[in-house]
UniProtKB/TrEMBL annotation:
Catalytic activity: tRNA(Cys) + L-cysteine + ATP = L-cysteinyl-tRNA(Cys) + AMP + diphosphate
Protein name stated in the entry: Cysteine--tRNA ligase
Sequence motif 'HIGH' region, location on chain: 37-47
Family as reported in the entry's similarity comment: Belongs to the class-I aminoacyl-tRNA synthetase family.
Binding site for Zn(2+): 35, 230, 255, 259
The protein's required cofactors: Zn(2+)
Single GO term (MF): cysteine-tRNA ligase activity
EC number: 6.1.1.16
Cellular component annotations (GO), alphabetically ordered: cytosol
Length: 493
């Protein structure tokens, strides 16, 4: 018997706005699709938060014994700068600015994305398809949508006819928008667009002569629209109807709304039973966003080399900080918050490391089975990781009490306590057992700070030969010092 038979999950479905009992389409199996990154720049910590929330959900579903097929795509084509299908393709633009091939941009940032996820101890998804690897599927999907009467071709581009679709279906049902309001709030077109209506969105765009990323199609040499790739790839790997679709809150409209419309237009049914949206990470009270530049990248936070935070933080501390909030709450990344999480994380790890030294007794004075079920209840309640962590701290209290001799556990209960810690701390939350002194990044940052201070002293003593030697030799081992008006910082090359 699998654990899921006894543990009933309730999850918040963005489509209905309610917490619902989770029931997979096929018993014991779950299909889950999460929109992946657009690989045109380094991921920031906001992106990491969203993927981390789904990593935790994936881990818990697997722990319950479900066979989960988790698909997370890589967007390597078709994502224009502007939601109204205007502007340049983000990857092409980066390639033009850096004078490299678009596929070099894709390669560089896909590798960066994977490195970051490894650093944070993510589990790999079951399938990680790319948009460029599924052009044929996307063209076939467009043909079906045209055949069904929900898309039209103009000058080599194909657009989804939102008004026509809305006559028989409900466009806006996920994001709770009404087409009439969208019409009212959209500026009229300037005559440049081929669209019948501004709410229509591109399924296929004809490539301008200078556009490098292009594929032949029945309509033109061009490229697919961004929303289309997710429908094509989710259908290919999870079927026309699957269990869970996730992404960041900002993708609800237009991206996910358009995915629903495409699926309904192509196969006549809504693709997904449960839509899940992770809330935004903020930095200094403002959404972290590539567009505004209000971001901190993981390596900046891990090395301590940034202008926002007082020190370097270990990957598990950052993971712990993120798990201390519900995935559905806005979370502000602050130094105070990280410092508090760091203290809590090492308190938890100290207790974990004490666990193996505890001695069993004749009888138990603590109710360990109730604690275990409380941990499951927290995760069953829409993956409520902050409540789970509160229960793990109850376990920390127990461990310390047993160690001091004020409470006791039998060998059997002690084994259950170890199981609780291993399951929830490591398997589900994905934390790694590091103690404060193991943290390589902390040590590196501390050591470079010592050298920066020595160099300042050398300069103050006018010993420029020594100060230059420190700078040059650090550079030789890949650490670059940067002198600024607020002092010296460093980067690891
Ligand atoms: P992108 O590469 O821009 O498509 O974003 C990748 C994922 O990160 C999407 O699911 C976004 O919703 C999510 N995301 C972007 N900004 C933030 C943020 N500040 N906090 C949390 N998630 C975010
Ligand atoms: Zn998507």
């Amino acid at each position: 018997m699998q654990l899921y038979e006894n543990q009933q999950i309730k999850l918040y479905n963005s489509l209905t706005g309610k917490k619902e009992i989770f029931k997979p389409i096929n018993k014991g199996h779950i299909g889950m699709y999460v929109c992946g990154p657009t690989v045109y720049s380094n991921v920031h910590l906001g992106n990491v938060r969203t993927f981390m929330s789904f990593d935790m959900i994936f881990r818990y579903l697997k722990h319950l014994g479900y066979k989960v097929r988790y698909v997370r795509n890589i967007t390597d084509a078709g994502h224009l700068e502007n939601d109204a299908d205007a502007g340049e393709d983000k990857i092409t633009k980066k390639a033009r600015l850096e004078q490299i091939e678009p596929m070099e941009v894709v390669q560089r940032y896909t590798v960066d994305f994977h490195n970051i996820l490894n650093t944070f101890n993510f589990l790999p998804p079951s399938i990680e398809p790319t948009a460029t690897g599924h052009i044929i599927e996307q063209i076939e999907l467009i043909k079906t949508i045209i055949d069904n009467g929900y898309a039209y071709e103009v000058n080599g581009s194909v657009y989804f006819d939102v008004h026509k679709f809305n006559e028989t279906n409900e466009y806006g049902k996920l994001s709770k928008r009404k087409l009439e309001d969208l019409i009212h709030n959209t500026r009229t077109l300037d005559g440049q667009s081929d669209k019948k209506n501004p709410q229509d969105f591109a399924l296929w765009k004809k490539a301008e002569p200078q556009h490098i990323m292009r594929w032949p199609s029945p309509w033109s040499d061009g490229f697919p629209g961004w929303h289309l790739e997710c429908t094509a790839m989710s259908t290919k790997y999870l079927g026309e109807h699957f269990d869970i679709h996730g992404g960041g809150m900002d993708l609800k409209f237009p991206h996910h709304e358009c995915e629903i419309a495409q699926n309904e237009a192509a196969v006549g049914k809504s693709p997904v039973n449960y839509w899940m949206h992770a809330n935004m990470l903020e930095l200094n009270g403002q959404r972290m966003s590539k567009t505004t530049g209000n971001t901190v990248n993981p390596d900046e936070l891990l090395s301590g080399n940034n202008k926002f935070f007082s020190k370097a933080y270990a990957p598990s501390v950052i993971r712990f900080f993120i798990a201390q909030s519900s995935y559905r709450s806005v979370l502000d990344l602050t130094d105070d918050g990280l410092l508090a999480s760091e203290k809590g994380f090492y308190r938890l790890m100290d207790a974990v490391n004490l666990l193996n030294q505890l001695k069993a007794s004749e009888k138990s004075t603590l109710d360990i089975n109730t604690l275990k079920q409380k941990c499951y209840d927290a995760m069953n309640d829409d993956f409520n990781s902050p409540i789970l962590i509160a229960h793990l701290f109850e376990a920390v209290k127990y461990i310390n009490q047993i160690n001091e001799g004020s409470e006791t556990l039998t060998a059997e209960d002690l084994a259950i306590l170890k199981e609780i810690i291993n399951t929830f701390t490591f398997d589900v939350l994905g934390l790694e057992n590091v103690t404060k002194n193991d943290s390589g990044t902390d040590k590196l940052s501390g050591a470079v700070d010592v050298l920066i201070k020595l160099r300042q002293e050398a300069r103050a003593n006018k010993d420029f030969a020594l100060s230059d030697k420190i700078r040059d030799e650090l550079l030789e081992v890949g650490i670059q010092l940067k002198d600024g008006k607020d002092g010296t910082t460093f980067s690891v090359n």
